[in-house]
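During the no-cost extension, the postdoctoral fellow (Dr. R.K.) reprocessed legacy sequence entries with the updated structure-token encoder. One reprocessed record is reproduced below for audit purposes.
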Amino acid sequence: MHKPLKIPESVLVVIHSPQLEVLLIRRADGRGGEEDFWQSVTGSKDTLDESWALTAAREVLEETGIDCSAGSRYEAALQDWHLENVYSIYPRWLHRYAPGVTHNREHLFGLQVESDCPVRLNPSEHTDYQWLPHRLAAERCFSPSNAEAILLLDRFVVPPRLLEGPVR
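Re-encoded structure tokens follow.
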């Protein structure tokens, strides 16, 4: 069965705890020395008119089993960062797109959950997961745009220790 061509518009969702631990998932399609392709949740729109938020919620559910769709426990925790990256598609994945497509537009989101939130991977897409402090997670990512997004957590999340007020 032939898969439809991917739309070159995708989301990147950085799933994190209030303590800035980041969930990374290992791609299942790594070959050779690439089995350590660690990343955040990513995925393309299913249709051109699919909203960014719907794409993000769908991909998070498909890849991790975490439900942040409308009416779910984590619906309010999905945060649109209103940032986008445009990057060259890795040559090994160009065949998934229409001929001549070489770049992808990626819209960024954050999703705050507890670090003990149950994770259920889709084994056809990912083989393992880990929670890491955000700076270490950024170092572990294979994608530079993913690493940069993780480092933006400082801009979007106030760690709980800062919300508690001054130490006396």
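The CA atoms of residues 27 and 126 lie 4 Å apart. The chain has a mean pLDDT of 90. The remaining legacy entries will be reprocessed before the final report is submitted.
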